Amino acid sequence: MDKVLLDTDVILDFFFGRQPFADDATQVLGLCETGKIKGFITPVICSNVYYVLRQTAHHEKVINHLKQLLAITDVLPMDREVVSNALYSGFKDFEDGLQNFAAVKYGKINVILTRNLKDFSKSEIGVLSPESYIKSYFARLR
Predict the structure, then answer these.
(1) Which domains does the chain have, with CATH numbers?
(2) Can you say whether residue 39 is alpha, beta or left, with left for phi > 0 and alpha for psi between -120 and 50 degrees?
């Protein structure tokens, strides 16, 4: 079973229905929900999603969205080692460095799913867009 880290943009594409990306995000989260893949997020992703969704919805509604997300994903831990690795990594976006090194430390993530592929160019983990991942996932089923 694939174990994937879902970047913030993928989750926001789903919650906001941002086209043309929402359909792929919906399929990825559907695979998580049905247990066909194992989705992971980080505490930073939770915080980012809360912050952005809170700009357009009441606290209670946003909390319910996060509860739905947690029902179908697991949360990778972050600690001093993850933060330190991100600080010294050369990642241009510190937040992406945090996501990456949380996934690296966990050691079982197959791929990071994001639309910001270039932000993860330094990752030792494979990086795909949700669109590319969905295509490859269903191609493997044939």
Answers:
(1) 3-141 (3.40.50.1010)
(2) beta
Q: Which residues pair with 112 in a beta bridge?
A: 5, 127
Predicted confidence (pLDDT) per residue in 58-116, tens digit: 999 999 999 999 999 999 999 999 999 999 999 999 999 999 999 999 999 999 999 99
Reported confidence tier of residue 141, pLDDT bands at 50, 70, 90: confident
Residue type, 133: Y
Per residue in 2-52, pLDDT tens? Answer: 999 999 999 999 999 999 999 999 999 999 999 999 999 999 999 999 999
C-alpha torsion angle, residues 110, 116, 118, 123 (rounded to 10): -30
Q: Which two tokens stand for residue 68?
A: 């739905």
How far is residue 1's CA from residue 12's CA, in Å, rounded to a whole number? 24
What span, in angstroms and rounded, lies between the C-alpha atoms of 85 and 136? 30
Nearest to 38 by CA among 106, 101, 132: 106
* Interatomic CA distance for residues 31 and 48, integer angstroms: 22
